[in-house]
Amino acid sequence: MTDNIFSTIPPTKERILKPDYETVGTGKRKRRVKSKTVQALHDSGDIDGEAVTASERWLKDYLFSVHRYADELGEPLPADYIKGDEHTFAIARAKAGERLSEVTQALGLCSHMRLKMLLVDGLSFSALGTTLWPQKKQPDAHKYARSQCALLLEQLGNFYIEKKKKEAREKDTCTFRKNVS
């Protein structure tokens, strides 16, 4: 018995034609599959694990902030955990939105839109290429999209690393001084 009943049901013909699917293989082996763009970049060595982790972090913040969706914790909560209410939920969503704003401010609005197309919409490199460069031929647009996405994800990973370093520096420099007279 499978864990998920839907894992055995293939997508419909209409669903396969959507831009988040891409064509792989040639000849009789040619088929449409769900695009796994970030994993493809990682497998080819274009991005490192830090960039993959950063993309997952950005996606979770986006889904929680915009769509009010967050995965449940896999671990049991401690006995002294105080359950939140709608107010703490709203504050947590606002903090996720603030983190998204920091990324957008640091990398730019165009980067935000590319991250949304790549991670949220799940577009393939081909679909990204034709969306961003409609005047280019398909193979060139695919190449441009792939290289820009790799660069963007590396920048995103670097942004989170630098942010963590900055927070650590600020934490080290904050000290309490007692006013001695």
Report on the structure:
The protein is built from 7 helices and 2 strands. It has 181 residues and is mostly helical. It has one domain (32-71, 84-170). A two-stranded antiparallel ribbon has the order 1-2. The radius of gyration is 21 Å and the shape is globular. It starts with 12 loop residues before the first helix and ends in an 8-residue tail after the last helix. The relative contact order is 0.13. Mean pLDDT is 82; it is low at 1-6.
Low-confidence stretches: 1-6
Number of helices: 7
Derived from helix and strand composition plus strand pairing, the structural class reads: mainly alpha
Return the domain count.
Answer: 1
Widest sheet: strand ordering? 1-2
The main β sheet shows up as: 2 strands, antiparallel
Distance between the termini: 75 Å
Order of helices and strands: HEEHHHHHH
Specify Rg, calculated over alpha carbons: 21 Å
Number of strands: 2
Strand content: under 5%
Chain-averaged pLDDT? 82
The global form is globular
Give helix % range.
55-70%
In short:
The protein is mainly alpha-helical and 181 residues long.
How would you describe this structure in keywords?
181 residues, 4% strand, 60% helix, globular, two-stranded antiparallel sheet
Secondary-structure topology with pairs:
Elements: H1 13-16, E1 21-24, E2 31-34, H2 37-43, H3 49-67, H4 86-107, H5 109-120, H6 125-132, H7 138-173
Antiparallel strand pairs: 1-2
Helix pairs in contact: 3-4, 3-5, 3-7, 4-5, 6-7
